[in-house]
Each structure stands twice: as C-alpha cells, then as structure tokens.
Amino acid sequence: MIVLVIGGSGSGKSEYAEERICNFYKNILCKEAKVWDIEASNIKTKSNRLFYIATMQSFSPEEDAKIERHRRLRDGKNFETIEQPFDLEKVTEKLLNKSDCILLECMSNLVANEMFRDGLIVSEDIVVRKIKEALSEVLQKTADAVIVTNNIAEDMENYDDTTNAYIRALGKINACIAGKADEVIEVVAGIPIIIKGEKRCPFSKE
Questions:
Q1: pTM of the entire structure?
Q2: Which of 21, 74, 94, 108 could form a disulfide with 150 if both were Cys (CB 3.0 to 4.6 A apart)?
Q3: What single DSSP character describes residue 188?
Q4: Where are the alpha helices (DSSP H) in the chain?
Q5: Superfamily (CATH) of domain 2-196
Q6: Residue 77 forms beta bridges with which residues?
Q7: What pLDDT, on the 0 to 100 scale, is given for residue 16?
C-alpha cells in the first residue's frame, strides 16, 4: 500500500500520516501473530520494522523546534529513524524486508535539499530523475509506505526562476507518486479528504 499525504503548512498532515503508517504496521504485526486484540508494541519483531525517513535539515531555531516537535509526535511508536536529507537511494541499504513499513517526512524537504546542495543549484530534471529512481527502489523493498508532501503551488505568487524550478520539480514528483499511490489524501485543517482511493474510513483494518 502506498499513500500520498499532501497539505499545507500546519494542516495536520504529519499527525495523519503517522497514524496511517502506525495502523499499517500494527496490522502487519497482528497478522503475523494471528490476533487483533493486542498492541503492536507487544509483538514487535526484528523482521517487521517501522522506519521514519527524516529529510529535514535545520538551519534555524524555528526549524530545530519543528524537528523536536516531530520527534515528540513519534515518541513511543516503534519508529526507527533514518536521517536522510538527500541521497534517498541509500535508504535501501537499511530496508531489508518486504514486511517493513516506512513514513517519509517529507518530500518537499528532500527536493529542496537535492536541488540546493553544497552551495550549488542542481537542475530540475536531474533532481526529478534522481528522486523518482531512488523512491522506486525504496518502495520495492517495503510493504507499506506513507509519503508526506507539501502543497505549495496554489498561492499564485510570482517567484524567481530558481524557486519556480523547485516548485515544478516538486509538482512533477508529487504527480508521479500520486499516479502510483493506492490512496492520495489531502489534509485540510486537520480533516483528511480522499482524493484517490476507496471511500472508506481511513483507519479501518486492511
């Protein structure tokens, strides 16, 4: 199962995405144990893992606070955190089982980090190709994936060429993921709206 969660800043998309992937993970563990009435934390195994792929780099106290908030959100939820602000393909070295679940938080940071890396500006086409290829490799090695991304192209502002290239790159990657995803959910003011997928309760058992 691949789920794309999209929303603006402060929309509640991160909380929603974490709840979705934790439910996927619990379902896998419960199926392995052939029970439904115990907490996932009680049956965690080495062959079924829950990864949080963190892509954000901090350059300010505000970003430090945001990272710390996300750490608090996932505390006690069995996440194994992989700090991967760029070179997403390296994640496959740690994803060894088709029963692993991943939460990627978030695609907008990953695109920015790849495009504006080491004081250089990498071309839009190179960034899009690299991330699409890396993401394809990661998704092939996981059971369930929830990918968080930002909705940043609706304010109709006039930006410089570099910013426009970033927006286009993110848009192309979002469109690619949406095409492959089983579900696309937009979170608005904490409310998940199903854009693609079955019209069902988002937290029901698979």
A1: 0.85
A2: 108
A3: E
A4: 13-33, 61-74, 107-115, 124-140, 161-180
A5: P-loop containing nucleotide triphosphate hydrolases (3.40.50.300)
A6: none
A7: 96
